[in-house]
Amino acid sequence: MKVAVFGTQSYDKEFLEKESKDSSHKLVYFDSPLSIMTAPLAKGFDAVCVFVNDDVNGEAIRAIAELGVKIIALRCAGYNNVDLDEAKRQNIKVVRVPAYSPHAVAEYTVALILTLNRKTHKAYNRVREGNFSLERLTGFDLYGKTVGVVGTGKIGQIFAGLMKGFGCRILALDAYPNKKLEKEGLLKYATLSDLLEQSDIVSLHCPLTPETKHIIDDQTVWRMKQGAMLINTSRGGLIDTEAVIRALMKGHLGYLGMDVYEQEEELFFKDLSETLISDEKLMQLVTFPNVLVTGHQAFFTDTALTQIAKVTIDNLTAFEKGEVLENEVTL
Length: 331
Ligand code: NAD
Known about the structure:
By secondary structure, this protein is an alpha/beta fold. The chain has helices at residues 10-20, 58-66, 84-89, 102-118, 120-128, 154-165, 179-183, 192-198, 218-223, 241-249, 280-285, 302-320, and strands at residues 2-5, 26-29, 47-50, 71-74, 93-95, 146-150, 169-173, 188-189, 201-204, 229-232, 255-258, 291-293. It contains twelve helices and twelve strands. The strands form two sheets. Strands 8-7-6-9-10-11-12 form a seven-stranded parallel β-sheet, with helices on both faces. The chain has a five-stranded parallel β-sheet with strand order 2-1-3-4-5. The radius of gyration is 21 Å and the shape is globular. The two termini are 25 Å apart. The structure holds nicotinamide-adenine-dinucleotide (NAD). Keywords: NAD, Oxidoreductase. Residues 3-329 form the D-isomer specific 2-hydroxyacid dehydrogenase catalytic domain.
């Protein structure tokens, strides 16, 4: 099949080329993400391959359907950026990579927590400048603290296990609680209010859906313990950014670690170091000493990139052969 790969970064090409070398697919790479503006590039292709920030809305889907595209292969797990209703109407299949390395994301979540807590990023800079003072580098022991995990799917449960290893008590919330995890003694399910009120660290691991959009807003952020830490490695839209800025300004929220951001589409995965960034909310956030923002890199390990490329190519091959699409996203 001819596949138009949108939003290509050098590592996408490297790993996709490796995994597709024994397949019959012909992959052509475009730097721009897919949107209504770039959809014409899909002319002559059977498939498009997209990532988290491509804007696969109804208009873009109608445009690629007219050009003869039959399948959208997401090289990620989340599919909140795809209009599934329109894809169905246009008879375009949508496939994804449901799990590439939940360990990569769970481990990175711990990295954000440890960095914010023990301030290794600040110590690194200080020591390079000959500043060996420990002033304002105080952290807290994780041992004995309560961690709230919102979403106990693949990533959430691995993360819960890692935090349990530090000696933390785990409270959890899930739309479909996994009683096995409770029986094994890993965690205890609680209501959102109890989880927020009792947790020293709250970490979000649920998908972005209409129900979870702004799950952390002006009300819920103030339900969190005074000085608690909020971590989001899931999707930016889970947090109302303005609400957390207000809670940070008032000193209620103690720490914020985010690898995802509600308006990240215009920013992340690009080198904008020579550009004036006009996103005032993000610029304000990065000035807080107790905030750590990274550019959607929690998944970014060679294990995950290999798995993403392999499953993406397998999904396309299964479609070409008319096999059952085990990774199809359906309504
Ligand atoms: P998963 O589907 O295995 O688990 C998600 C869990 O959330 C499920 O148990 C589900 O029941 C639960 N859930 C759904 N709606 C809920 C609600 N309203 N309230 C509470 N829980 C709810 O997904 P996963 O593989 O663990 O991934 C979790 C999220 O992590 C993904 O949705 C994706 O957005 C994000 N992610 C981020 C990165 C990154 O690089 N930062 C990489 C991969 C995934």
